[in-house]
Every structure is written in structure tokens, then in C-alpha cells.
Write a structure and sequence with these properties.
- With 375 residues, the protein is of the alpha+beta class.
- The chain is built from 6 helices and 26 strands.
- The protein has 2 domains: 68 residues, no CATH class; 293 residues, Neuraminidase, CATH 2.120.10.
- The strands form 7 sheets. A 5-stranded antiparallel beta sheet has the order 19-20-21-23-24, with no helix packed on it.
Length: 375
Amino acid sequence: MDHQQETTEQIHKKARIKSQESVVRSSFPLDLISEILSKLPAKSVGRFRCVSKLWSSVTTDPYFINKFETQSRQRKPCLLVSFKRDDRLFVFSIPQDRQSSNEYHPIASQPVHSYHMTYPKSRRFFPRVSVHGLISCFQEETKPIIWNPTTRKLLILTKPEKSWEYATFFLGYDPVDAKHNEYRVFALGSAQESWRRIKTNHKHCVNSYPTRHTDKTERFGFIMSFDVRSEEFHVIKLPCNNSGPGGILASYEGRLACVTGNAADDGTILWTLMDAEKHEWSRRYFPIPIPYYDRSVETVFNFIGITDAGEFVYVPNRFRKLYYVLYYDPKRNKFHRVEFKGIADDESRLKHGLVNSRLYNIPAVMNHIESLRSF
């Protein structure tokens, strides 16, 4: 009898779901449902996937995932601050762009979104850039980890070669086929996920910064670019007087830029790529040091990138109870300091069990957007 009653309830439940899906189909076109859902936060989309099979199908479709990323980018990228303690990964998402203000004093910030998740205790945590919402957490490791901070999922890739003790990994993206790629290439989302060898005639030493050509007959600073679709390497020469290592790559006014310190007077030089084929760069000088020491808070701030508004972003090398972000406006030659609460204050430390923890060299990743991409 119980079994029969349970079966009956299941039948009625399926009938209700089918009826609801029928109403949805008759009331709203699928493209309208997709449009509405793509404007919601990722957390809400995750919940709505459980509403019905139809909505689950809509929100897991590649077209919807790409559309959601477009909407997320329009809502402005964020600055992702994260650190690992034992097997816990603490993640803080804060506004990347500074609020408009002519004042130097700390600006009242928006609420900091935070969460923590489990991370392999034996694995190092070294996040690099965010590529369409995915982050590679290792630069030199036999098994790289790909992390989606939005879905809180981790993917541990296989080792390219068993004999390799260390390798350098970068994350790329093919905007046509919507595939992420990593000299060995591993295509995420392809039919055959395996490492493939890519040949290049350019002798170089892989680094995350501009480096030098390895041919002793001709030494010059250069950037090695990799087209993830054609799987071809290209060389972009840096200006001859900028051939030393240590430059930081950034995006400035929609162009590739390289930011370097000027040892002559402790200033900063911004090189902007004007023509990749002709290796032409423009040069701008700013009377600010990299890194920057703020005497008012007695803290060293490291340069990490440039916002869409053209402001230089500096994050603290270490912090105690307060977390500040420095913004340098090159047009006004002026710094603005923004305080973000909820990261290192007493209440947050007590909440996360970090009362006596020293927080220094905390990674901060710019231009992060929400992504629903699965592995």
C-alpha cells in the first residue's frame, strides 16, 4: 500500500512538473527565458536550474553561458582577493573600479562578498589572471589546478609528462569555439581532453613577464603570444631600452601595455602597443614608484594592473586589520585610497578563525567576472 501510495505521489509530482513546463513554454519563449535568467547573479541562476528540466537545459546551454558572461562583464569586473590556510580557501570579491571622488580619504565601500571552500591541503595556491571567469592556480607545478570561483569547482589536470618535475602553465581562451587552452596544449571542453605538443621556432624561456630572446647573437626583450585557435606562436619585440625583465603586462585603453619602473628616478614608464606587426610602442612617463610605499598606513603597495577608467591599481603587500586598495589617477597625478571592510578586521578574523594569522603576500586577481562554465 505504501509502495502504491509513493508511486502515485511520484506520478502526480511528474504531472505537475510537466504541467508547469507546459505553462512556461506557452507563456514565455525560450529566448526570453534565457534573456531574463542571464541578467541574474550566478547564485540565483544556480537555484533556478533546480526549477525544472527545461530551465536546467536553458542555463547549461553554451549559448546561455556565453551570454551570461557578456552580462557579467557589463556589470563590471571585480577584484578577487583570496588566500589559503591549511585546506581552506578564503575568497573575497570587491569592486574593481573606484567610486568617483576628489578626496584622498578612505571612501565608504560597497559590501565585500566573501565565502570559503575546501582546497587540497598539499597543493600550493598561486592564482594568476582570470580568463573568462576561470583561474589557473599554479605557475610551476606538475599538476595544474583550474579554478572557477563562481561555481567553487576545481579541476586538477593530468601531468603533461611523467618525467617533468616542474612546468609553467598559462590559461588561454578561444572565443569562437569557447574553449580554454593552456608549448603542450590541453583544450578544456573539447571532445578529446589530452595534452598535445605544439612546435615553435622561437627560442625563449617561458616567463609570466616580458623576457629576453635566448639567441646570444641578438638579445632583445619580447613578448611571446600564442593564438589558441590557430595554435601558432608570435613574437612582439619590446622597445630596445625596455629589454630588461620585471615589466608587468596590463591592458590600457583597450591595448596591450607593459609597465616598468624607471631606475633613474624611481618613476614609472607605461609602454602601450600601437602596432604588433611593426613592433611599435608609445611611451608615457609617470612620477610614481613601483612598488609604492604609503607612509600614512606604513604599508608597501604592489602594482597589479590598470582599470578600464585608466587608473593604476595597487594592493597591500601585507595588512593587519584593514585592507586598502590604492588607485593612481595618471591624469591628475593623484592617489586615492579605498578601504574595504570584511577582509581582515577583528570580526572577520574571528569569523574565519584567523585571529592570530599573519596576512601577507595575499594574491589579488583583476578583471574577474562570474562564469557558469563547467569542467
